[in-house]
Amino acid sequence: MTEQRSPRFRRATTETPLVQALIIGLSLVFLSIFLLLPLIAVFSEAFRNGASAWFEALIEPDALSAMRLTLLVAVIAVPANMVFGIAAAWAIAKFEFRGKAFLITLIDLPFSVSPVISGLVYVLLFGSNSLLGPWFKSMGIEILFAVPGIVLATIFVTFPFVARELIPVMQEQGSGDEEAAISLGASGWQTFWRVTLPNIRWGLLYGVLLCNARAMGEFGAVSVVSGHIRGVTNTMPLHIEILYNEYNFAAAFAVASLLAGLALVTLVLKTAIELRYADQLSAVRGH
Questions:
Q1: How far apart are CA 163 and CA 18, in angstroms?
Q2: Judging by beta carbons within 10 Å of its beta carbon (0-12, 13-18, 19+), is residue 155 exposed, middle or buried?
Q3: 3-class DSSP state for residue 166?
Q4: Cβ contacts of residue 243 below 8 Å, gap of 6+?
Q5: Based on the number of CB atoms within 10 Å of its own CB, is 140 exposed (0-12), middle (13-18) or buried (19 or more)?
Q6: pTM of the predicted structure, to 2 decimals
Q7: pLDDT tens digits along 228-249
Q8: Any stretches that span the bilayer, and where are they (predicted)?
């Protein structure tokens, strides 16, 4: 009788080692050309004139103003999206109600709409000839070409991230733990803080990381509503564009290196979460 090979040692594919090596090699070449080389170019250009020139570009008043505004927008947008994401994911995963599919569609809307279009929507809503713009202006509140407009545009383009990471996690976990807590006398808030939140904390952190990276790097929507007022409404991506258009390449790449560093830190943290809590986040990666 011919001994069957254990499933443990069966080949995952039927391709020859040469074909596998070719596929892996092409993937590495593609990643090197389109991801690794541009990243290396950013940092090499940023430090071309030395570390002192890099540091001087970062402490320039307009650059510091752009950094402060970027951090301010992220500090407002990320917690707002975190609250919305938790509430939306809770409603979608734990309850059945009319309009559930429509709510999911609305959450995915910023993924399918160009950021520039989303910025134009706020111009139509809060512009000088719109219905809401003159009313807010009469109240002394500036929306467009000011911090509120930048915050609103950033919230719009980033609000799917937290919700979309939490929905599959909550759906996979079900509502058994919450029902058990309530049956033992826990209130709604106690159930949330002691049962639901600990169960979703890593998925929540995953979504917050992605949301923060997008909020700090958003360009299209913010560019439309900011007005490009130097030192006032320019975030870091907009400041980089201005420096580059002025042929101040060293300063532009210096500021860009900060955003690239943020992306790398986000990637490292994201990978660490996935490796440490792979079982809990498997549904997130597959949605």
A1: 43
A2: buried
A3: helix
A4: 249, 251, 252, 255
A5: exposed
A6: 0.82
A7: 888 899 999 999 999 999 999 9
A8: 21-43, 63-90, 102-123, 143-163, 204-229, 249-269
